[in-house]
Design a protein that fits this description.
The complex is a heterodimer of chains A (about 150) and B (about 240). Chain A is α+β, with helices and mostly antiparallel strands. Chain A has seven helices and four strands; from the N terminus they run H-H-H-H-E-H-H-E-E-E-H. Chain A has a four-stranded mixed β-sheet with strand order 2-1-3-4, covered by helices on one side. Chain B is of the alpha+beta class. Chain B has two domains: about 5-115, Ubiquitin-like (UB roll) (Roll), CATH 3.10.20.740; about 135-240, no CATH class. Chain B is built from seven helices and eleven strands. In chain B, strands 2-1-5-3-4 form a five-stranded mixed β-sheet, sandwiched between helices. In chain B, strand 10 (about 200-205) and strand 11 (about 215) form a beta hairpin. The mean pLDDT of chain B is about 95. Classes of the chains: A alpha+beta (about 150), B alpha+beta (about 240). The interface of A and B includes residues 36, 53, 55, 58 and 59 of A.
């Protein structure tokens, strides 16, 4: 992340360290991950220890310290989705993408991850790609979804 | 300054008095009650992580188990430091701790005293760290170096320097001293000191009088900077300085 871009984010929060979480969220949104160098700069500009920034950055699942793919796939493994075959959907996606859960494809197209219920159990098995929810999936349907994203 | 508000309450039937809002554990210890604890230290803020300091507190007719290290005392509460419920809960906690830190002499002793011969849980390979957070707190609150912190969460929770890079560690050894399970080791070889767990090795300053290395140069300069001491303040080791 360029210095000027980070500066703009920091300014938005008036350089308040109490807004660290929001600052990191903005960096994550822009960069799709939290680069080490940027975190070090955040710590320096806010005059707070890097340990504190790192603690927060590793605590929340929204953050990633390694580059994420352009599209984030979240396979719901909550109870309802699980009994309706979410694991098979996950297995298919893992096989098609060639990554493990939590992994990112080499071309940075997808990151595959899992969640524990997103609150629309009647639609299970559910997969969320970016912000969009796809319900009542099976292996075939899930595999087809991937084609829509580049 | 306003007068401190004192409150009176009972521990195991004995009437005690303390300033309102102080934590229960230090008050009880002051009065000579024995409550086992691992993650509490008077030098740092209470945290309630080890759960060993459980007591029963009765307030307005309701009794509950709570950690005493982070329970602020109040007028008229009734505290029990030892009951069957407490002992049962404590035994379970000790078994769990024993599975995390099977080599810790202190935990082994506590478990033995509670009548536990061995833990039913599978042993974990986490280097005896029980994630009590004392090292992290002492580094931040007492030393002020902020070199380490908790990392991640849940079953992946760990403690260490950011990015496994101990650049802010001054190798003062406060974490080594405070660790209740002795899982942070410090080694001194020649003129180098290593904090093993954080993988930090620093060169030590040699005393200008007796020639003995006594503290990391990086630490001494850090202190000199922090409190504006004269540059030559740490030329002599504490022994030689005291002898002058």
């Amino acid at each position: 992340m360029k210095k000027a871009q980070l500066e703009k984010i920091l300014k938005r929060y008036d350089y308040q360290d109490s807004d660290l979480l929001a600052i990191l969220q903005d960096v994550q949104t822009q960069e799709n991950y939290l680069p080490r160098k940027t975190l070090e700069e955040v710590a320096e500009r806010l005059a707070i220890p890097l340990a504190r920034v790192y603690k927060l950055a590793t605590f929340y699942r929204t953050f990633s310290l390694t580059p994420r793919g352009r599209h984030l796939i979240n396979v719901c493994l909550g109870t309802a989705c699980h009994v309706r075959g979410a694991t098979m959907v996950l297995e298919r996606l893992k096989r098609d993408l060639g990554v493990k859960a939590g992994g990112t494809t080499k071309d940075l197209r997808f990151t595959l991850d899992t969640v524990r219920c997103i609150g629309c159990c009647s639609l299970g098995p559910v997969v969320v790609i970016n912000e969009e929810i796809f319900g009542k999936l099976n292996q075939e349907k899930a595999a087809k979804l991937l084609k829509e994203y580049n | 300054m306003a007068d401190k508000e004192m409150v009176r309450f009972a521990i195991d039937g004995q009437e005690v008095e303390a300033e309102k809002g102080t934590m229960l554990l230090p008050v009880a210890l002051e009065y000579g009650f024995e409550i086992p604890h691992l993650c509490y230290h008077e030098a740092v803020s209470p945290y309630g992580a080890c759960r060993l300091c459980l007591v029963e507190v009765t307030k307005r007719g309701r009794t509950r188990l709570t950690t005493s290290c982070n329970y602020p005392v109040d007028e008229g509460i009734d505290v029990t430091t030892d009951s069957e419920d407490i002992q049962r809960a404590r035994r379970m906690i000790l078994e769990l701790l024993l599975a995390r830190a099977p080599h810790s002499e202190r935990i082994k002793k506590l478990a033995y005293e509670a009548g536990i011969k061995e833990t039913r849980f599978s042993l974990m390979d986490v280097g005896d760290c029980i994630l009590c957070g004392l090292c992290e707190r002492v580094c931040r609150e007492v030393v002020g170096a902020d070199a380490i912190s908790f990392i991640s969460r849940g079953d992946k929770r760990d403690v260490g320097p950011p990015f496994a890079d101990p650049i802010a560690c001054i190798a003062c050894g406060a974490c080594v001293y405070i660790c209740p399970t002795d899982c942070i080791k410090m080694e001194e070889r020649g003129d180098e000191r290593t904090i093993v767990k954080w993988n930090r090795t620093l060169k030590m300053q040699e005393c200008k009088s007796c020639g003995k290395p006594f503290a990391p140069l990086f630490q001494l300069n850090w202190i000199i900077d922090k409190v504006n001491l004269p540059k030559d303040f740490y030329d002599l080791c504490p022994v030689c300085r005291a002898g002058r």
